[in-house]
Amino acid sequence: MTDITVVGAGGEYMESVVVVAWHKKKGESVKAGELVVTVETAKAATEIEAPVSGILSDIRAQIGEEVAIGTVLGTLSEDGADTAAPAVSAAQTAPPAAPPAAVPAEAYVAAAGGERINASPLARRVAASRGIDLAGLVASSPSGRIKLRDVDAVVAVPAERPVAGTTASASVSAGVSLTRRGSGEGTPFVFLHGFGADSFSWQPLLATLGVEVPAVLVDLPGHGRSPAMDGAGSLEGLAFAVARALAGAGIEQCHLVGHSLGGAVAIALAEAGRLAPLSLTLIAPAGLGPDIDGDFISGFCRATRAESLKPWLLRLFADPTIVTPGYVQAALNGRGDALRQAQAALAGRIFPDGTQAVEMRCALRRVAVPQKIIWGEGDRIIPMRHALGTGPQAGIHLLPNVGHMPHVEAAATVARLVLQNARSAG
């Protein structure tokens, strides 16, 4: 048996390829040097020839499938012993339904800095067809390459319409933007982002969780697609607005996941009894101590240009390579003057003088559901020692070499802990 594989060529960086076409059917004879399969790399199509003569005894990578470099695409049997009665599936023999869609030039270049975006061919093609700007995506893979799963985790613009071919849709409930995602049944996971962020910040974690996990992504008032709202300028006001929005969307039970400010809102929601959370996962939550990086809060709120915003975004991560020009530009595009001013006003009430004015430790102890607290040991915004004063009911997970955004820097670990916590709720 001889494997048919693809390796990097011509010095081009590749992590994966997409199978474009099989030129032989399973069970057909192949001569050495004859074209067998065509794959698409980040730059061009690559034709792979048979290394030996024989029978195409197995096709392992189907048309349209994205596979890692070095993966066995198929096998050749020199004697054909394994192909006496081959069962050829339609997926193995049918040509592609349509030629690959042309990817606009803007999909290849980040919005700022002119850097070429590191993305797989399939991710580029799907993103272009859905109107998704690759410059704003954060890769879930350690290599930093955007893959199809990263694109699948995004709701395309315009967000008010369901995206063809996906299970994501966005709506507004009681003035709060809610995005539903996932094809799975059962109790949804409700995600509450941190200060100055939006529902898009969960994209790396959602890509890791997979589309089968039912999720509801909340844009807090004054963030993302949710405008500032009267009465939502305090922690209690934020919690009430979110509770009303979830109730209006028919969500009574959920697994709550909150990051930073969203963590404090999640505690307030769970403690107030306005909905029935089955589990509570907090990621670097606010409200568990007085300390916070006040310079970050004020600097972030002041920033109106990419050059002034980037230094503050760098404080969020242990790995500075995450903060690419495209990432900075996407963050800047997501906060116009109205939202920036609303966030500054909110910060003045919740984080006055660079101090956390909200105190949620006692409230957390009154929440009788499975709890996990996840914190990056390298967090420069809120110190991880705040987790130690939460009481014995919460499982604490401290992640090395991770900053204030564990769901971005350690998405796989956070996904495992979120699901583990949900399973413990029975």
TrEMBL record:
Keywords: Lipoyl
Residue span, Peripheral subunit-binding (PSBD) domain: 118-155
Domain of life: Bacteria
Domain Lipoyl-binding as annotated: residue spans: 1-77
Entry's Gene Ontology molecular function annotations: acyltransferase activity
Needed co-factor(s): (R)-lipoate
CDD domains attached to this UniProt entry: lipoyl_domain (cd06849)
UniProt entry tagged with the keyword Magnesium: no
PANTHER family tied to this protein: ALPHA_BETA-HYDROLASES SUPERFAMILY PROTEIN (PTHR43689:SF8), HYDROLASE (PTHR43689)
Entry's family note: Belongs to the 2-oxoacid dehydrogenase family.
The protein's name: Acetoin dehydrogenase dihydrolipoyllysine-residue acetyltransferase subunit
Annotated organism of origin: Ancylobacter dichloromethanicus
Lineage, opening ranks: Bacteria, Pseudomonadati, Pseudomonadota, Alphaproteobacteria, Hyphomicrobiales
